[in-house]
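REQUEST ID: PR-0412
SUBMITTED BY: lab tech R.K.
PRIORITY: routine
TASK: structure prediction, single protein chain
INPUT:
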Amino acid sequence: MKTEKLCQVLFRLHPLPEKLKDRALQEELRAQVNGMVAGSHYVHRQLLLSAGQPAEHAYFVVEGFARGYYYDEQTGREITLFLWGESAVALAANSFFLRQPSDIYMEVMPGSALLSLSHGQLARIYELFPATEALAHLLTLQYNAFHKQRTKDLLTRSAWERYLDLLQAHPRIEQKVSKEVIASYLGVTPQSLSRLLRENGHP
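STATUS: complete
OUTPUT:
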């Protein structure tokens, strides 16, 4: 079933509502979601969402990577905030859940496969399974915690330490994501990343 991994991730969220621990309800929910989600494979980099637009879809990364980034008009640089790898839920959380214009761009990397669910489809799931609204709250809390950790890491850890952390979280990411994107996630220029690799050797 194409949504098996997605459902596994959702049912592992903590604290999971008691109603969603029921096996029979989980199977009903799986069947409903399986009939709604759309799968897509991307050969090239492709923009999924532009800043200023409302996020109409949430994505689940089956294979490959997607990223969320800001565009700094003063410097002309893209600043990557999110790198979503396999089994990650990729979305502009505030825009999707609160129906606000997105403050980030979302882009999928070449060779990636995604599942997508629209906001309208999610609303239908809420109607059929009211307990699932708690999952949206849990995902939002995860994103808030991620923001805090990212800010702390940028302030307290070196670029090389952040690079090692990235490799640990996503082994072989450098084979699937460009050096420019990795550098923008680390908060350095591609030239600085190349210099770090020369000085420290490839891990």
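NOTES: The CA atoms of residues 4 and 168 lie 25 Å apart.
REVIEWED BY: pending
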